[in-house]
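Continuing from the previous page of notes. For each protein in this section, the sequence appears first, followed by its structure tokens. Read the first protein now.
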Amino acid sequence: MEQKFPGLRARAIAAQFMEDKVIALFELSLVDGEVKVVEERHYRLVAARDLDRDAIRAYRDG
């Protein structure tokens, strides 16, 4: 992995599907021999046709 993506570190993640087309993504870390949640974010799934084109451009352009 390091040869293909030098300078980047692997991050353990998990996903959980929730109600109303929401997905929770978790970044995990091993702390004192236990798996801990470092960060949690929630995202709502929407159809591509419902995406705001200006928001997509702004996200893409950074």
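Done with the first. The second protein uses the same format. Note its length before scrolling.
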Amino acid sequence: MKIINLSETDSILNRFVAELRDIHIQGDSLRFRRNMERIGEIMAYEISKEFSYTVKHIESPLGIAPVSMPGDQIVLSTILRAGIPYHHGFLNCMDYAENAFISAYRKYKDTLKFDIHIEYIASPPLDNKTLIITDPMLATGSSMELAYKALLTKGTPQQVHLAAIISSEQALTYLTEQLPFENITIWTAAIDTGLDEHSYIVPGLGDAGDLAYGEKI
């Protein structure tokens, strides 16, 4: 498994991540969703550099232009509900992709202990395709692990990209141990050092789903 931390290179991506974190900005849910979407667009561009390409000859009004075109069959998958605007950012760039959706949530045993449950999955066949799983926050890594394993019931992808906005060091360590496969790459826009007693990323940004769509009961 390879981990790529895009914050190691300065770019406009850092501004969008900063606005997601900023308590003076994140109260605007429309802007919060749009920033997630813009991060998804940038992340999609970065991941696309890893695709396989072939030259195709495109007819223009004035001649024939050779263009290097991606050949991967892409499946974009997201974990509901926080991942929806992030997913849309990817889809803006990869509008030819197929799509998959998974529900994963924390079921608390008490105020601090919880299990991750998956209740819904909709996916096209995945055999020999390039699978991208988007989840804005990698806190413990358990949701991403279970989502990946659930999607494998739909086929075996050739390449897998796990795309997060903010990841904890603990989640990256956990996923590296649980999914030690050469065809998996983790992409993240930032890495934070800790988790609080509720397993939220510190400093993180709070609950991405609530900030995007309102509080839940």
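What the second structure shows: The chain has a mean pLDDT of 94. The radius of gyration is 18 Å. We return to this in next week's lecture.
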